[in-house]
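Final report, Chapter 2: Outcomes

The project's central promise was a pipeline that accepts a single protein chain and returns its three-dimensional structure in a standardized token representation, suitable for archiving and comparison. That pipeline is now operational. To close this chapter, we reproduce one record exactly as it appears in the project archive, with the input sequence first and the structure output second.
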Amino acid sequence: MDSIFPKRIADVAQLEELLSRPTPGAVETMKRLKGDVVILGVGGKIGPSLARMVRRADAAAGVSRRVFGVARFSSPGLKEKLEADGIEAIPCDLLDRERLAALPDAPNVLYLAAMKFGATGREAATWARNVYLPGLVCEKYRRARVVAYSTGNVYPLVPVSGGGSVESDAPNPVGEYGMSCLGRERIFQYFSRLFDMPVAFIRLNYANEMRYGVIVDLARKVFAGEPVDATMGYFNAIWQGDNNAMTLQAFDHAAAPPRAINVTGRRVLSVREIARQLGELMGRPAAVVGQEAPDALLSDSTLARRLFGEPRVEESQLIEWIADWTVRGGPTLDKPTRFEVRDGRF
């Protein structure tokens, strides 16, 4: 782990500072990037810290630009917090065509808008958010450079022994959520070709910080004495701060047709082993049930590490941080990843 990081994360204020601390690579990218930045879907789990990293990277690079953060802002106080950090927060339901059309123009777009949680039973809304909306956004920002969030769920479950899917593998998503995410990519691909619009896809799998992520899900179960199901026995994880920095650097690699980049950690992690480690750190026995399936949702991050550099935070440090945070009763976002789902029904 980079020596700039502490042994433990004391509180939310320190966590937010660390999540938004830019890497030298992110600073260099923002120094080269010309024009304003609009962040669509800034109100989710990743958006606030990513927006702050844009501002901090700009400051470090000596660049002056406007940064717009667009969301419905259903979380109380988020709009005001972003504005205090120099982000111009704009309330907007992006599916409202008139309000979308009225958004500021910008030559650089970070596209974070998506629907996953509650997709089962709300399939029509999921497809509207994940497929129809990208078409509207592409028409609005047809002259922009776009970094768009996708997901490792566009890949099938793959043998654990293979190390994970690579970007050249054919997508084959399981379930409607994953299919809608592939639909999002296909819409961006269509408009990228139509408008010669540079796009980079961030196929993320999975971001973690102290308040959410697969490791947080496991820590909460172990600490509460609940059984951990090991059937989906393996996963990938990356510190959200590293994901944020790689996302900004992806502006350098946007292309027409679009380029996909798997963003995740170096290693394939074992649910059983991580639960055991968390149990030891938290002083609680880990009750693991079930038998590991021979396949899992896994991504190979070799390309991202070649383009952006190695993650600053090792998975082992994430485990120690999250165990400490959980024992101390640190707050969570209460948004389980549901990584254990194998049939794609989220």
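Archive annotation: The mean pLDDT is 95.
This record, like all others produced under the grant, will remain available to the consortium after the project formally closes.
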